[in-house]
């Protein structure tokens, strides 16, 4: 983004969107999934310590998987930036409107990516994951409706 704004300090995201992204849009679903998505009970894990060996042997997560994840992350960020940017480049959309579009796109991507990793769905994981996307839309509509905000 900074390459297209001549290294300006201007941001396409409002301060509120940045704060809400970290606090509401993506952290709440991650915390809820971390609490409720359990493959095995704590008793089973304590009873069978051999289950932890896969982690020590790097069978579940290793440097190859790490680098594949990094490449995938770069790919996703390029797509999320350039597709809206190139589609609306010569259109009437302003910087804050495209920032709102980027916010929605990132929140949807993060939550769908999280949803693909959930093993055990319960009501709260559904509510947190899909509710976060809904809350993002609602918050952006509300924030964009105030005349005092830059993306009014």
From TrEMBL:
<keyword id="KW-1133">Transmembrane helix</keyword>
<feature type="domain" description="P-type ATPase C-terminal">
    <location>
        <begin position="1"/>
        <end position="148"/>
    </location>
</feature>
<dbReference type="InterPro" id="IPR032630">
    <property type="entry name" value="P_typ_ATPase_c"/>
</dbReference>
<dbReference type="GO" id="GO:0046872">
    <property type="term" value="F:metal ion binding"/>
</dbReference>
<feature type="transmembrane region" description="Helical">
    <location>
        <begin position="121"/>
        <end position="143"/>
    </location>
</feature>
<feature type="transmembrane region" description="Helical">
    <location>
        <begin position="65"/>
        <end position="83"/>
    </location>
</feature>
<feature type="transmembrane region" description="Helical">
    <location>
        <begin position="18"/>
        <end position="36"/>
    </location>
</feature>
<dbReference type="InterPro" id="IPR023298">
    <property type="entry name" value="ATPase_P-typ_TM_dom_sf"/>
</dbReference>
<keyword id="KW-0460">Magnesium</keyword>
<keyword id="KW-0812">Transmembrane</keyword>
<dbReference type="Pfam" id="PF16212">
    <property type="entry name" value="PhoLip_ATPase_C"/>
</dbReference>
<dbReference type="GO" id="GO:0005886">
    <property type="term" value="C:plasma membrane"/>
</dbReference>
<feature type="transmembrane region" description="Helical">
    <location>
        <begin position="95"/>
        <end position="114"/>
    </location>
</feature>
<dbReference type="GO" id="GO:0140326">
    <property type="term" value="F:ATPase-coupled intramembrane lipid transporter activity"/>
</dbReference>
<dbReference type="GO" id="GO:0045332">
    <property type="term" value="P:phospholipid translocation"/>
</dbReference>
<keyword id="KW-0472">Membrane</keyword>
<protein>
    <recommendedName>
        <fullName>P-type ATPase C-terminal domain-containing protein</fullName>
    </recommendedName>
</protein>
<keyword id="KW-0479">Metal-binding</keyword>
């Amino acid at each position: 983004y900074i390459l297209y704004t001549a290294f300006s300090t201007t941001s396409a995201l409002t301060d509120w969107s940045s704060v809400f992204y970290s606090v509401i849009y993506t952290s709440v679903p991650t915390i809820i999934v971390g609490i409720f998505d359990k493959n095995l009970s704590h008793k089973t894990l304590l009873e069978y310590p051999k289950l932890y060996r896969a982690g020590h042997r790097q069978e579940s997560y290793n440097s190859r998987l790490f680098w594949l994840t990094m490449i995938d992350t770069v790919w996703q960020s390029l797509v999320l930036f350039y597709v809206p940017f190139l589609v609306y480049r010569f259109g009437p959309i302003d910087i804050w409107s495209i920032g709102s579009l980027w916010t929605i796109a990132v929140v949807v991507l993060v939550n769908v990516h999280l949803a693909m990793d959930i093993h055990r769905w319960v009501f709260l994981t559904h509510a947190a994951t899909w509710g976060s996307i809904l809350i993002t839309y609602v918050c952006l509509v509300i924030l964009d409706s105030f005349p005092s905000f830059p993306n009014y």
